[in-house]
Design goal:
The protein is of the alpha/beta class. Helices cover 42% and strands 10% of the residues. It has a single domain, classed as Oxidized Rhodanese, domain 1.
Length: 128
């Protein structure tokens, strides 16, 4: 293990859920939220993932996730994902402090791919 790997592992947020646990939450009405940049998202994301700026998510999770969607379910669990779990793991607590159920995919999209799940390219869908 190199220095870079040790530093990344030290900065990782503890916890995270498995891809199977994430899929279970999503099948129960959870919302998958990608906290990477728009460019990263467009290069490849989990199907159905909503793109949200992590800074906006920390300030106002409901608006960052749902926009002005009148059919948004305010009690839906938010499942965060990024490349490795680093960014999403650190955004969990601020979202929870706003009263939302929130988890993150441990290992991020790397784990998602390793579990055999599809990653698709393309722009974020418009929520409005």
């Amino acid at each position: 293990m190199g220095l870079r790997d040790r530093l990344v592992n030290r900065m990782m947020a503890p916890g995270g859920i498995s891809v199977d646990e994430a899929l279970t939450l999503l099948s129960s009405g959870g919302v998958l939220v990608d906290v990477r940049s728009e460019r990263e998202y467009e290069a490849g994301h989990a199907p159905g993932a909503r793109l949200a700026d992590v800074k906006e998510l920390v300030k106002d999770a409901f608006t960052a996730v749902h926009g002005d969607d009148p059919l948004a379910e305010p009690d839906a669990t938010v499942v965060l994902i990024c490349d490795t779990g680093l960014r999403s793991g650190h955004a969990v607590e601020p979202v929870r402090k706003q009263g939302f159920g929130c988890e993150f995919v441990g290992g991020g999209l790397l784990a998602w791919r390793q579990a055999g799940q599809v990653v698709i390219p393309g722009p974020p869908r418009n929520r409005r």
